Amino acid sequence: MAMGGRAVFINVGFDPTASLDIVSAMTLSSGDLLVAVYPKSGDEVSRLRSEHARSQINNHVSMLRALGRNIEYRELELDLKDIVKSIDVFLDFLKGVKREGRTVYFELTGGVRTITVIMVLISVWFPNFVDELTFIVEVTRERVSLPVISPLEISKGRVKDILKIMSSCSSVRRKDLCNELRVSESSVSRAISFLKRRKIVDEKLRVVSLNEKFRALSSIFKHFGDCFQIREK
């Protein structure tokens, strides 16, 4: 049965202070699920530090509950000695969360580098399981959110060509897209309809613009088509 709400996966390492800082900076609301992803420890010192970090997070969630926020907390242990099994365990856990009807966020700040790599790989290969990547830029200390979209989806038909054009302008008319690409209006219309269903673009009075959430990917849209040209050569 679908529960809805957000599921925020955080990468927990062996630094209790850093882990708590990351969680404290989040805005968790009632109905949210917080998942601490952590590595199986190979020595006693690392195990104790990891337990302390997770205990700090659990205490923070308990404090939020005392303030009236109904937040669920779960933990996911990965044995990084076996990367293949770790990915398998992560995906099984993630599928269960998605069956609850939750929107999934991967917080990539801090933690163990190998888990960060696994989280990024999963978001690329299984974009329907992950909705957004979030992280803090070390230089500015600002939190950045990036939407997740499958490269396979935007490589279809004229979709990648339209996104390339839109990467360098705030909005464009359908007629101008047809002229620029030298294709029929029906071809452009099919691509735009697909992009609107995926909420990548918005349209008003036949003027199309990138959805604000996807503007952060403009540079990727700009260069995405080049990988096909290089491969063909």
TrEMBL record:
Pfam families: Csa3_N. Residues 7-124 form the Csa3 N-terminal domain. SUPFAM superfamilies: Winged helix' DNA-binding domain. The chain crosses the membrane at residues 104-126. Keywords: Membrane, Transmembrane, Transmembrane helix. This is Csa3 N-terminal domain-containing protein.
